[in-house]
Amino acid sequence: MTTTTPPLATGAARGGTPTTTAGRVRKRLTSRTATVASIVIAVVWTIPTFGLFVSSFRPEEQLKTTGWWTFFRDPQFTLENYQQVLFGRGASSGQLAGYFINSLVITLPSVLFPLAFAAMAAYALAWINFRGRDWLYIGIFALQIVPLQMALVPLLSFFSRGVSLGGVTLMPPWDLAGEERFIQVWFAHTCFALPLAVFLLHNFVSQLPKDLMEAARVDGATHPKIFRSIVLPLITPALAAFGIFQFLWVWNDLLVALIFAGGGSEVAPLTVRLAEMAGTRGNEWQRLTAGAFVSIVVPLIVFLSLQRYFVRGLLAGSVKG
Amino acid sequence: MEFDVVEQQGKLLMLLYGLVAFVVVVGGMLVLLDVVPAWFARRREARLVAASASGAPPPGRYPQREGIFALFFLLPAVLMLLIGLVVPAIRTTLLSFMDGDSQNFVGLRNYGWMFSEDSIVRVLTNTLTWVILVPLVATTIGLLYAVMVDRVRFEALAKSLIFMPMAISFVGASIIWRFVYAYRGAEQEQIGLLNQMVVALGGEPRQWLQDPPLNTLLLIVIMVWIQAGFAMVVLSAAIKAIPADIVEAARLDGVTPWQMFWQITLPSIKPAMIVVVVTISIATLKVFDIVRTTTNGNYDTSVVANEMYNQAFRYGENGQGSALAVVLFVLVIPIVIYQIRNLRQQREG
């Protein structure tokens, strides 16, 4: 194709630069319009968050009587809202510091367990030959479409009442109280994460070069050895991508926490507390603005610093599949 | 500054238990899988030596050992899926044919209830509105933005800003937007951005979240705000993946940007578009947090996931709650079938 194109067109193709003056001006104009428009839209998109952020630093009486945009005319800055919402003792304050720790305690194991279990399952489904392998994979894949709402009622009764079949107790109730209820939250999050995790990691694991695996087998490496020393290091990017994904999902989740952790200050995460505050104290904006930011800040840091991995994971999950 | 560290010790101890359990379970399995085969190998070797010494034919390989490995690798995941998803999903389906206490079989009564009760019909139509509008609007915005921002200066920054709501929890996003929709009486100064704009244009401030059907649309705005970033990122990657020679060839033929969009860009990214629409649709079907945090389902804004929670966990109506969960599942199925058919077409085509 390049051999037959006239020189003028080749010039246009090289950098997409039009050769006529009018064309160049028009091109520059459109690209400038596009730049301005995309920045304006990006700013508009950010304004709601920005407004809340500014408000969280304004004193209560100001916040409740004037709009946040007046801050720039009459800047008054305070950290009182954060102080109150994190550490305040009154029933109306958030006491969010404790809930923040709950969120952390819930999130870490809820990310680690599904990652490990899914990586192992994905390896077995991709590289170990056994009967019924394809059917098992299809089954796990299909589970992705089961909404977790389908599992909530029976799973909760599994924890609280155990399993009995025809009067015979197959599994005693777990009877978890207080802080022990973290266990059922971890359990629930792990179960619900597995179908997607297995699917994503299987995509990566199955694309590893076959020669590599066969060479390792010929050298006498067993499956656990291959898994540990060859597969795990190679799929680290995929593990990171899913880890971030799962972290954001668990940290931001409301439904699972609401049901399996309850509303108590011992186990409930930030989201549950915030939703409760929004329900009962919907006009205490000095608490809600600061509280919302306490809950947003961790995922935002994770997201901004690891965005590259996160995007890669999203693309792998949605486009390749 | 009153923060009791001692009070938090129990939780941190639980975290420690959790992490130790993780190391023990996962590490233990790997060690077990390492040690046991090594032991088998040694025994096999010994048998080989013995066999060669006695002149008998060497024993064959054990194909079943692969199966044992597979079992161990799959055991935790499969077990948890069975306990946490498969069995509960089957039980939920059964419960949906039983009464509120899950004692008596009531046939299809729970499903009949859904379509006879006006408030639940409202819930179903609300959900339908969500599922139609959110994917449509979010994907359109995402697509337009992805096309516009392509090769513009500050592209990375602009994209990060649009994408940022993805990192914010639905609860956080709901609070952000409740603040935008906040209402003060007409005689007071407005603190909500939307009412301020209305007042600035000479209108009356309104209680946005309290008059249907507008309030459902305003809640949909929140979801669109979150999901447009997702659509934009995926579609932008798809646009960048369009082979450069196709674009150049089209440019040589002198197509206008308009034609370029409809005849080159759109057909090339169709697979990504379908994935985006399907993913957003499924997420929208299950939307719960936004409705609960903003209106708690009052003022005619409730959706299926929200009503399911209320029925099953607030009113103790397990049968009706389960029936709503089943409806959610049934609504997902056509979307997924559509996606699978498309994937298959792509592979063949």
Report on the structure:
Chain B: One of its GO terms (cellular component) is plasma membrane. The complex is a heterodimer of chains A (321) and B (349). Chain A is flat, with a radius of gyration of 27 Å. In chain A, strands 1-2 form a two-stranded antiparallel ribbon. Chain A is built from 15 helices and two strands. Chain A is 71% helix and 2% strand. Chain B is mainly α and 349 residues long. Chain B folds into two domains: 5-109, no CATH class; 113-348, MetI-like (MetI-like fold, Orthogonal Bundle). Chain B contains 14 helices and no strands. In chain B, helix 2 (64-95) crosses helix 14 (318-348) and helix 11 (270-285) packs antiparallel against helix 14. The longest helix of chain B has 50 residues, at 5-54. Chain B is extended and about 105 Å long. At the A-B interface, helix 1, helix 2, helix 3, helix 4 and helix 5 of A face helix 1, helix 2, helix 4, helix 5 and helix 6 of B.
Q: CATH superfamily of the largest domain in chain A, please? A: MetI-like
How can the largest sheet of chain A be summarized? Answer: 2 strands, antiparallel
Question: Which architecture of the largest domain in chain B per CATH?
Answer: Orthogonal Bundle
CATH superfamily assignment of the largest domain in chain B?
MetI-like
How big is the Rg of chain A? Answer: 27 Å
